[in-house]
Amino acid sequence: MPTTMRAVVLTAPGPVDNLQIRELAVPEPAPGWVRIAVRAFGLNRSELHLRRGLAEGVRFPIVPGIEAVGTVDAAPGSDLRPGEQVAALMGGMGRAYDGGYAEYTVVPRSSVIPFHSDLPWAVLGGVPETLQTAYGSLTTGLDLRPGQTLLIRGGTSALGYATAALAKDLGATVLATTRQKDRLDTLAAHGVDHPILDGGAVAAQARRIAPDGVDAALELVGTPTLPDTLAATRVHGTVCFAGMLSDQWTVPDFYPIGYLPTGVRLTAYGGEAIDLPAPVLQRYLDRIAGGTLSLGPSHTYRLDQIREAHHALDTNTASGKLVVLTGSES
Predict the structure, then answer these.
(1) pLDDT for the residue numbered 55
(2) How would DSSP label each residue in 152-214?
(3) 199-204 long-range contacts, Cβ below 8 Å, gap at least 24?
(4) Locate the Enoyl reductase (ER) domain: which residues (predicted)?
(5) Which residue segments constitute the domains of the chain, with CATH numbers given?
(6) pLDDT per position as a tens digit, 275-310
(7) CA distances (Å), 24 to each of 93, 150, 160, 305, in order?
Protein backbone atom coordinates (compact mmCIF):
# COMPACT_ATOMS: atom_id res chain seq x y z
CA MET A 1 0.00 0.00 0.00
CA PRO A 2 1.55 3.34 -1.02
CA THR A 3 1.75 6.08 1.59
CA THR A 4 1.53 8.97 -0.88
CA MET A 5 -0.58 9.73 -3.94
CA ARG A 6 -0.94 12.24 -6.72
CA ALA A 7 -3.83 14.66 -6.31
CA VAL A 8 -5.06 17.82 -7.96
CA VAL A 9 -5.15 20.63 -5.42
CA LEU A 10 -7.03 23.89 -5.98
CA THR A 11 -4.93 26.36 -4.02
CA ALA A 12 -7.46 29.22 -4.19
CA PRO A 13 -10.26 30.41 -6.48
CA GLY A 14 -8.92 31.68 -9.78
CA PRO A 15 -7.49 30.58 -13.13
CA VAL A 16 -6.60 27.05 -14.20
CA ASP A 17 -3.03 27.68 -12.97
CA ASN A 18 -4.44 27.36 -9.44
CA LEU A 19 -4.98 23.65 -10.12
CA GLN A 20 -1.74 22.00 -9.06
CA ILE A 21 -0.73 18.34 -9.02
CA ARG A 22 0.79 17.57 -5.66
CA GLU A 23 2.03 14.56 -3.73
CA LEU A 24 -0.24 14.06 -0.69
CA ALA A 25 -0.52 11.44 2.00
CA VAL A 26 -3.01 8.68 1.19
CA PRO A 27 -6.04 9.44 3.40
CA GLU A 28 -7.16 7.03 6.11
CA PRO A 29 -10.87 6.10 6.29
CA ALA A 30 -12.68 6.30 9.60
CA PRO A 31 -15.36 3.70 10.41
CA GLY A 32 -18.31 4.26 8.10
CA TRP A 33 -16.09 5.82 5.42
CA VAL A 34 -14.67 4.19 2.31
CA ARG A 35 -11.27 4.66 0.71
CA ILE A 36 -11.48 4.32 -3.05
CA ALA A 37 -8.60 3.75 -5.44
CA VAL A 38 -9.79 6.21 -8.06
CA ARG A 39 -9.45 5.12 -11.67
CA ALA A 40 -11.35 7.98 -13.31
CA PHE A 41 -13.49 11.00 -12.53
CA GLY A 42 -15.80 13.22 -14.51
CA LEU A 43 -15.66 17.00 -14.61
CA ASN A 44 -18.77 18.93 -13.62
CA ARG A 45 -19.99 22.50 -13.68
CA SER A 46 -19.92 22.43 -9.89
CA GLU A 47 -16.11 22.24 -9.95
CA LEU A 48 -15.96 25.17 -12.35
CA HIS A 49 -18.08 27.17 -9.89
CA LEU A 50 -15.66 26.15 -7.14
CA ARG A 51 -12.64 27.31 -9.14
CA ARG A 52 -14.34 30.58 -10.02
CA GLY A 53 -15.00 31.32 -6.35
CA LEU A 54 -18.78 30.90 -6.59
CA ALA A 55 -18.98 28.18 -3.93
CA GLU A 56 -19.61 29.29 -0.36
CA GLY A 57 -18.12 27.88 2.82
CA VAL A 58 -15.19 26.08 1.15
CA ARG A 59 -11.74 26.02 2.72
CA PHE A 60 -8.64 26.17 0.53
CA PRO A 61 -6.50 24.42 -0.49
CA ILE A 62 -8.84 21.57 -1.42
CA VAL A 63 -8.93 18.56 -3.73
CA PRO A 64 -11.98 19.20 -5.95
CA GLY A 65 -14.29 16.63 -7.49
CA ILE A 66 -17.90 15.67 -6.78
CA GLU A 67 -17.64 12.20 -8.36
CA ALA A 68 -15.22 9.35 -8.97
CA VAL A 69 -15.16 5.70 -10.00
CA GLY A 70 -12.71 3.03 -8.95
CA THR A 71 -12.33 0.12 -6.57
CA VAL A 72 -12.73 -0.17 -2.82
CA ASP A 73 -9.35 0.00 -1.13
CA ALA A 74 -10.52 -0.02 2.51
CA ALA A 75 -13.95 0.18 4.12
CA PRO A 76 -13.81 -0.33 7.90
CA GLY A 77 -17.15 -1.36 9.38
CA SER A 78 -18.77 -1.43 5.92
CA ASP A 79 -20.55 -4.00 3.79
CA LEU A 80 -18.18 -3.17 0.92
CA ARG A 81 -15.16 -5.35 0.19
CA PRO A 82 -11.70 -4.43 -1.16
CA GLY A 83 -11.55 -4.67 -4.94
CA GLU A 84 -15.28 -4.05 -5.45
CA GLN A 85 -16.09 -1.59 -8.22
CA VAL A 86 -17.82 1.53 -6.95
CA ALA A 87 -18.95 5.00 -7.90
CA ALA A 88 -18.85 7.86 -5.42
CA LEU A 89 -20.71 11.13 -5.79
CA MET A 90 -21.96 14.19 -3.96
CA GLY A 91 -22.38 14.15 -0.17
CA GLY A 92 -19.92 17.00 0.31
CA MET A 93 -17.18 15.65 -1.98
CA GLY A 94 -14.80 18.38 -3.07
CA ARG A 95 -16.51 20.95 -0.87
CA ALA A 96 -16.79 19.81 2.76
CA TYR A 97 -13.81 17.45 2.35
CA ASP A 98 -11.34 16.46 -0.35
CA GLY A 99 -12.97 15.02 -3.46
CA GLY A 100 -12.30 12.80 -6.42
CA TYR A 101 -9.46 14.58 -8.27
CA ALA A 102 -6.91 12.18 -6.79
CA GLU A 103 -5.53 8.66 -6.95
CA TYR A 104 -7.33 7.89 -3.68
CA THR A 105 -10.35 9.51 -2.07
CA VAL A 106 -12.20 8.88 1.20
CA VAL A 107 -15.96 9.34 1.26
CA PRO A 108 -18.91 8.37 3.48
CA ARG A 109 -20.46 4.98 2.73
CA SER A 110 -23.72 6.80 1.94
CA SER A 111 -22.04 8.41 -1.09
CA VAL A 112 -20.90 5.09 -2.58
CA ILE A 113 -22.75 2.94 -5.13
CA PRO A 114 -21.38 -0.52 -5.96
CA PHE A 115 -21.59 -1.92 -9.50
CA HIS A 116 -19.97 -4.46 -11.79
CA SER A 117 -18.94 -3.68 -15.35
CA ASP A 118 -16.32 -4.52 -17.96
CA LEU A 119 -16.65 -1.08 -19.53
CA PRO A 120 -13.40 0.92 -19.75
CA TRP A 121 -12.77 3.32 -16.88
CA ALA A 122 -12.85 6.18 -19.37
CA VAL A 123 -16.51 5.35 -20.03
CA LEU A 124 -17.42 4.58 -16.42
CA GLY A 125 -15.89 7.86 -15.24
CA GLY A 126 -18.43 9.87 -17.17
CA VAL A 127 -21.54 8.12 -15.87
CA PRO A 128 -22.35 8.58 -12.14
CA GLU A 129 -23.20 12.26 -11.59
CA THR A 130 -24.55 12.82 -15.10
CA LEU A 131 -26.78 9.75 -14.91
CA GLN A 132 -27.95 10.62 -11.40
CA THR A 133 -29.03 14.09 -12.43
CA ALA A 134 -30.58 13.02 -15.74
CA TYR A 135 -32.50 10.16 -14.14
CA GLY A 136 -33.66 12.26 -11.20
CA SER A 137 -34.66 15.22 -13.37
CA LEU A 138 -36.85 13.04 -15.59
CA THR A 139 -38.43 11.05 -12.76
CA THR A 140 -38.60 13.27 -9.69
CA GLY A 141 -38.34 16.66 -11.39
CA LEU A 142 -40.59 16.14 -14.41
CA ASP A 143 -42.43 12.82 -13.99
CA LEU A 144 -41.97 12.39 -17.74
CA ARG A 145 -44.27 9.87 -19.44
CA PRO A 146 -44.01 7.90 -22.70
CA GLY A 147 -45.36 9.86 -25.64
CA GLN A 148 -44.76 13.28 -24.10
CA THR A 149 -42.62 16.05 -25.57
CA LEU A 150 -39.51 17.21 -23.73
CA LEU A 151 -37.50 20.38 -24.39
CA ILE A 152 -33.90 20.33 -23.14
CA ARG A 153 -32.39 23.79 -22.84
CA GLY A 154 -28.63 23.27 -23.09
CA GLY A 155 -28.69 20.08 -25.13
CA THR A 156 -24.98 19.68 -25.91
CA SER A 157 -23.91 19.66 -22.29
CA ALA A 158 -23.08 16.25 -20.84
CA LEU A 159 -26.34 16.36 -18.89
CA GLY A 160 -28.27 17.42 -21.99
CA TYR A 161 -27.06 14.43 -24.01
CA ALA A 162 -27.71 12.00 -21.15
CA THR A 163 -31.21 13.33 -20.49
CA ALA A 164 -32.07 13.09 -24.19
CA ALA A 165 -30.92 9.47 -24.26
CA LEU A 166 -32.96 8.52 -21.20
CA ALA A 167 -36.02 10.41 -22.45
CA LYS A 168 -35.86 8.73 -25.86
CA ASP A 169 -35.48 5.38 -24.12
CA LEU A 170 -38.66 6.18 -22.21
CA GLY A 171 -40.54 6.92 -25.43
CA ALA A 172 -40.62 10.72 -25.39
CA THR A 173 -40.18 13.11 -28.30
CA VAL A 174 -37.12 15.24 -27.60
CA LEU A 175 -36.37 18.83 -28.57
CA ALA A 176 -32.92 20.10 -27.56
CA THR A 177 -31.12 23.40 -28.02
CA THR A 178 -27.60 24.47 -28.82
CA ARG A 179 -26.10 27.91 -29.39
CA GLN A 180 -23.64 26.53 -31.93
CA LYS A 181 -24.94 25.73 -35.42
CA ASP A 182 -22.29 23.08 -36.04
CA ARG A 183 -23.63 21.04 -33.12
CA LEU A 184 -27.15 20.61 -34.53
CA ASP A 185 -26.09 17.51 -36.47
CA THR A 186 -24.44 16.11 -33.35
CA LEU A 187 -27.71 16.40 -31.46
CA ALA A 188 -29.55 14.64 -34.26
CA ALA A 189 -26.92 11.89 -34.37
CA HIS A 190 -27.52 11.25 -30.66
CA GLY A 191 -31.25 10.75 -31.08
CA VAL A 192 -32.71 14.22 -30.61
CA ASP A 193 -35.86 14.48 -32.73
CA HIS A 194 -35.80 18.25 -33.10
CA PRO A 195 -32.44 20.05 -32.68
CA ILE A 196 -33.01 23.79 -32.22
CA LEU A 197 -30.53 26.60 -32.72
CA ASP A 198 -30.76 28.84 -29.65
CA GLY A 199 -30.39 32.52 -30.40
CA GLY A 200 -31.68 33.49 -26.97
CA ALA A 201 -35.36 32.73 -27.51
CA VAL A 202 -36.69 29.33 -28.60
CA ALA A 203 -40.31 29.33 -27.38
CA ALA A 204 -41.67 30.20 -30.85
CA GLN A 205 -39.61 27.43 -32.49
CA ALA A 206 -40.74 24.90 -29.86
CA ARG A 207 -44.40 25.86 -30.37
CA ARG A 208 -44.11 25.36 -34.11
CA ILE A 209 -43.25 21.75 -33.26
CA ALA A 210 -45.66 21.43 -30.31
CA PRO A 211 -48.36 24.09 -30.92
CA ASP A 212 -49.84 23.89 -27.42
CA GLY A 213 -46.38 23.92 -25.86
CA VAL A 214 -44.13 21.07 -24.76
CA ASP A 215 -45.25 18.77 -21.98
CA ALA A 216 -41.99 19.11 -20.07
CA ALA A 217 -38.81 21.14 -20.21
CA LEU A 218 -35.43 20.77 -18.54
CA GLU A 219 -33.67 24.07 -17.89
CA LEU A 220 -29.90 23.57 -17.87
CA VAL A 221 -28.76 27.05 -18.94
CA GLY A 222 -30.01 28.98 -15.92
CA THR A 223 -32.19 31.92 -15.01
CA PRO A 224 -31.43 34.03 -18.13
CA THR A 225 -33.32 31.58 -20.36
CA LEU A 226 -35.84 30.30 -17.80
CA PRO A 227 -38.69 32.73 -18.77
CA ASP A 228 -38.41 31.68 -22.42
CA THR A 229 -38.35 28.00 -21.45
CA LEU A 230 -41.48 28.53 -19.37
CA ALA A 231 -43.11 30.24 -22.37
CA ALA A 232 -42.43 27.12 -24.47
CA THR A 233 -44.34 24.90 -22.04
CA ARG A 234 -48.05 24.08 -22.15
CA VAL A 235 -50.61 24.75 -19.45
CA HIS A 236 -50.17 22.07 -16.75
CA GLY A 237 -46.76 21.27 -18.23
CA THR A 238 -43.66 21.24 -16.04
CA VAL A 239 -40.28 22.95 -16.22
CA CYS A 240 -37.50 21.50 -14.07
CA PHE A 241 -34.56 23.75 -13.19
CA ALA A 242 -31.51 21.49 -12.85
CA GLY A 243 -28.50 23.27 -14.34
CA MET A 244 -26.67 26.58 -14.49
CA LEU A 245 -24.46 26.60 -17.59
CA SER A 246 -24.76 30.39 -17.54
CA ASP A 247 -23.54 30.55 -13.91
CA GLN A 248 -26.70 32.46 -13.03
CA TRP A 249 -29.12 30.69 -10.69
CA THR A 250 -31.14 33.36 -8.89
CA VAL A 251 -34.09 35.46 -10.04
CA PRO A 252 -34.00 39.02 -8.64
CA ASP A 253 -37.28 40.36 -7.23
CA PHE A 254 -39.13 37.16 -8.07
CA TYR A 255 -42.88 37.81 -8.39
CA PRO A 256 -44.49 34.44 -9.14
CA ILE A 257 -47.70 35.69 -10.77
CA GLY A 258 -45.79 37.97 -13.10
CA TYR A 259 -42.96 35.50 -13.75
CA LEU A 260 -44.75 32.18 -14.25
CA PRO A 261 -47.12 31.66 -17.18
CA THR A 262 -50.59 30.74 -15.99
CA GLY A 263 -50.82 27.04 -15.20
CA VAL A 264 -47.17 26.17 -15.95
CA ARG A 265 -45.41 24.33 -13.14
CA LEU A 266 -41.83 25.06 -12.08
CA THR A 267 -39.80 22.48 -10.12
CA ALA A 268 -36.13 21.93 -9.38
CA TYR A 269 -33.85 18.94 -9.01
CA GLY A 270 -30.57 18.42 -7.19
CA GLY A 271 -29.86 14.88 -6.03
CA GLU A 272 -27.41 12.76 -4.06
CA ALA A 273 -26.02 9.24 -4.38
CA ILE A 274 -29.13 7.84 -2.71
CA ASP A 275 -31.17 9.16 -5.64
CA LEU A 276 -29.34 6.80 -8.02
CA PRO A 277 -30.21 3.31 -6.71
CA ALA A 278 -27.60 0.66 -7.42
CA PRO A 279 -29.98 -1.39 -9.62
CA VAL A 280 -30.65 1.70 -11.77
CA LEU A 281 -26.93 2.41 -12.19
CA GLN A 282 -26.29 -1.24 -13.02
CA ARG A 283 -29.14 -1.37 -15.54
CA TYR A 284 -27.87 1.63 -17.47
CA LEU A 285 -24.24 0.44 -17.37
CA ASP A 286 -25.39 -2.87 -18.83
CA ARG A 287 -27.30 -1.00 -21.54
CA ILE A 288 -24.21 1.06 -22.40
CA ALA A 289 -22.08 -2.09 -22.50
CA GLY A 290 -24.62 -3.77 -24.76
CA GLY A 291 -24.60 -0.87 -27.21
CA THR A 292 -28.30 -0.06 -26.77
CA LEU A 293 -27.74 3.23 -24.92
CA SER A 294 -25.25 6.08 -25.15
CA LEU A 295 -25.03 9.02 -22.79
CA GLY A 296 -23.36 11.15 -25.47
CA PRO A 297 -19.86 12.07 -26.58
CA SER A 298 -16.97 12.21 -24.12
CA HIS A 299 -13.40 13.48 -24.05
CA THR A 300 -10.65 11.81 -22.04
CA TYR A 301 -7.66 13.43 -20.33
CA ARG A 302 -4.81 12.31 -18.09
CA LEU A 303 -4.40 13.60 -14.56
CA ASP A 304 -1.50 15.80 -15.65
CA GLN A 305 -3.83 17.39 -18.24
CA ILE A 306 -6.27 18.70 -15.62
CA ARG A 307 -5.65 22.34 -16.57
CA GLU A 308 -6.33 21.56 -20.21
CA ALA A 309 -9.54 19.75 -19.25
CA HIS A 310 -10.71 22.64 -17.07
CA HIS A 311 -9.94 25.10 -19.85
CA ALA A 312 -12.19 23.07 -22.18
CA LEU A 313 -14.91 23.09 -19.50
CA ASP A 314 -14.47 26.82 -18.97
CA THR A 315 -14.64 27.74 -22.66
CA ASN A 316 -17.27 25.21 -23.75
CA THR A 317 -14.98 23.98 -26.52
CA ALA A 318 -15.79 20.29 -25.96
CA SER A 319 -19.29 18.93 -26.45
CA GLY A 320 -20.33 16.29 -23.91
CA LYS A 321 -18.64 14.84 -20.85
CA LEU A 322 -15.00 15.40 -19.84
CA VAL A 323 -13.34 12.48 -18.06
CA VAL A 324 -9.92 12.28 -16.41
CA LEU A 325 -8.02 9.04 -15.92
CA THR A 326 -5.75 8.83 -12.89
CA GLY A 327 -3.49 6.14 -14.36
CA SER A 328 -3.54 3.34 -16.91
CA GLU A 329 -6.78 2.31 -18.58
CA SER A 330 -6.34 -1.37 -17.76
Answers:
(1) 87
(2) EESTTBHHHHHHHHHHHHHT-EEEEEES-GGGHHHHHHTT-SEEEE-SS--HHHHHHHSTT-E
(3) 200/225, 200/228, 201/228, 202/151, 202/153, 202/177, 202/228, 202/229, 202/232, 203/228, 203/229, 203/231, 203/232
(4) 14-324
(5) 4-127+295-325 (3.90.180.10), 130-268 (3.40.50.720)
(6) 999 999 999 999 999 999 999 999 999 999 999 999
(7) 17, 46, 35, 18
